[in-house]
Design goal:
This protein is of the alpha/beta class and 430 residues long. The protein has a single domain (4-429), classed as Glycosidases (TIM Barrel, Alpha-Beta Barrel). The chain contains ten helices and 17 strands. The chain has helices at 2-15, 57-70, 87-95, 120-133, 158-174, 193-199, 231-238, 262-266, 324-334, 413-427; strands spanning 24-27, 30-33, 41-45, 74-77, 99-103, 117-118, 139-146, 182-187, 213-217, 245-250, 275-280, 293-294, 308-309, 312-313, 319-320, 376-379, 382-383. Strands 3-4-5-7-8-9-10-11 form an eight-stranded parallel β-barrel, surrounded by four helices. A three-stranded antiparallel sheet has the order 6-16-17. A hairpin with a 2-residue loop joins β13 (308-309) and β14. α2 runs parallel beside α3 and α4 (120-133) packs across α5 (158-174). The longest helix has 17 residues, at 158-174. Bound molecules: 2-acetamido-2-deoxy-beta-D-glucopyranose (NAG) (4 copies). The site of one 2-acetamido-2-deoxy-beta-D-glucopyranose has 4 residues, from loops. Residues 394-403 have a biased composition (Basic and acidic residues). Its EC number is 2.4.1.-. It is a lipid-anchor; GPI-anchor. One of its GO terms (cellular component) is plasma membrane.
């Protein structure tokens, strides 16, 4: 009797690891939880420390509790340490009703935008993150990259994003993991965005396509509206998209304070049928000035210590930044889309996309080019297809993607702001 109680207790405590949120799947152009309810992200970018913010349970508990009052249901984490223990943090967020989206790349395994390659060392690093996180019910999605293509002349790296999606999805399925959505988070580059999002979902083979498309967009800077912000254009390209599309970063901070009025557009009648929500950049206040909370006053940038880095306290009691925090809370409170029920949704109603043709000086990938094999390298505007374990006994001929003129780079200002935001957190302590 006594021993069976102990067994029961042990089983319970294992089950308590984020068992209280229904898992989420990408079906057609939407996310649904396993109860059949459409899911819309109200997300926060969360990276307190460069290597992994999901290892400090007590800190996660404090942050998750405050995020819950804000109305958040998702976080985005850019880097994690697959060797660390994340049980406490993932449970803390699950207890607060919050899912996690996690980037699989590490500081050493990024797919690079120039001299691009995709090989087994990278795949192993990515799948190690998946192997660590797949067990959490509140893992909502995994990214194969963030802004790999950061300039208008880097579109030749796009097939390598598909290669990473193909191989990580194959790993997921071979391991028998649930259908964890695997996608990409793109920089908002005006000249490439419509082609890139179509390319990553085109060609008719779901095994090679992303399961979702995240857009990092800082186009809506106050004062703005649906038309003047540029969101109306984003909507034209997102309408009836083949897979879920959402803002994987948003929240322009100039001039500030931030009003977050774009949330009303994203969750309102103009966009809600096409978009699955938004992730606000970012939780912690630091040099880039995007924070929704701070852990203490600014400190000397050269100061070091357990809780300090880059001139900011990076741990402790989170204090909302006023009025930004309240402004976002108000926007999210007013936005309660119900969407469509799984039982009423026909996934086949989502569109398919054409693979875009290359254009001189613009999008450089010509149509449905062969997705690079594991081990392939981009050299100039061509890439090698090498024989690999996954290529079986086909001794692949090297093939060439179409050679095209290279365009000048002309990113919009908002995208540059976004890049600065993200780069900051990555470079502070390097
Ligand atoms: C992948 O490429 C990197 C950089 O060239 C190299 O260090 C690594 O050894 C490669 N891995 C494999 C398995 O070829
Ligand atoms: C789809 O892609 C996978 C992975 O590259 C490949 O194994 C499969 O043969 C493709 N299916 C078709 C119908 O081309
Ligand atoms: C994207 O939207 C713009 C309007 O903003 C439109 O001109 C363009 O044709 C669209 N591109 C694609 C590939 O749908
Ligand atoms: C791409 O554009 C950048 C400027 O934005 C330039 O420095 C770089 O050399 C270009 N790359 C190529 C391959 O032309």
């Amino acid at each position: 009797m006594r021993s069976s109680i102990l067994v029961g207790a042990a089983a319970l405590s294992t089950a308590a690891v984020s068992a209280n949120l229904p898992t989420i799947e990408a079906i057609g152009s939407k996310f649904f939880d396993k109860n059949g309810k459409q899911f819309f992200m109200k997300g926060i970018a969360y990276q307190l420390t460069p290597d992994d913010p999901l290892v400090d349970t007590e800190q996660c508990q404090q942050d998750a509790a405050l995020m819950q009052t804000l109305g958040a249901n998702t976080i985005r984490v850019y880097h994690v340490d697959p060797d660390a223990d994340h049980d406490g943090c993932m449970a803390a967020f699950a207890d607060a009703g919050i899912y996690a989206t996690v980037d699989m790349d590490t500081f050493h395994s990024y797919v690079l935008p120039e001299n691009t390659f995709w090989n087994k060392t990278q795949l192993d690093a990515y799948t190690k993150v998946m192997d660590t996180f797949h067990k959490y019910d509140n893992l909502l999605g995994l990214y194969v990259g963030n802004e790999i293509i950061a300039r208008a002349n880097q579109s030749l790296a796009a097939p390598f994003i598909k290669a990473a999606a193909r191989d990580t999805k194959a790993h997921r399925d071979a391991k028998g993991y649930r259908n964890i959505p695997i996608g990409y988070s793109a920089a908002d580059i005006a000249e490439l965005r419509p082609m890139l999002q179509d390319y990553l979902t085109c060609g008719g083979n779901a095994s090679e396509n992303v399961d979702f498309f995240g857009l990092n967009s800082y186009e809506w800077c106050d004062p703005a509206n649906y038309q003047t912000s540029g969101y109306a254009n984003l909507q034209v390209n997102a309408s009836n998209f083949p897979v879920p599309i959402f803002f994987s970063e948003t929240g322009c901070n100039v001039p500030g304070p931030r009003l977050f009025e774009d949330q009303a557009a994203i969750f309102g009648p103009d966009m809600v049928k096409s978009w699955s929500g938004a992730i606000i950049y970012e939780w912690i206040q630091e040099e880039n000035n995007y924070g929704l909370i701070s852990y203490g006053p600014q400190v000397d940038p050269t100061a070091t210590g357990a809780n300090i880095g880059g001139g900011y306290t990076r741990k402790g009691k989170p204090t909302p930044k006023s009025p930004d925090f309240e402004n976002l809370k108000t926007q999210w409170k007013a936005a309660n889309p119900t969407g469509v029920a799984r039982s009423d949704y026909d996934a086949k109603s989502a569109s398919t996309r054409e693979c875009p043709k290359s254009t001189s000086g613009g999008w450089l990938v010509d149509g449905n080019v062969a997705v690079p094999t594991l081990g392939a390298t981009l050299t100039g505007s061509t890439y090698s297809q090498v024989p690999s374990a996954t290529a079986g006994d086909h001794a692949a001929e090297p093939t060439e993607s179409k050679k095209s003129a290279v365009s000048g780079s002309n990113e919009i200002a908002g995208m540059a702001a976004g890049l600065v935001g993200v780069m900051m957190i990555f470079t502070f302590w390097l």
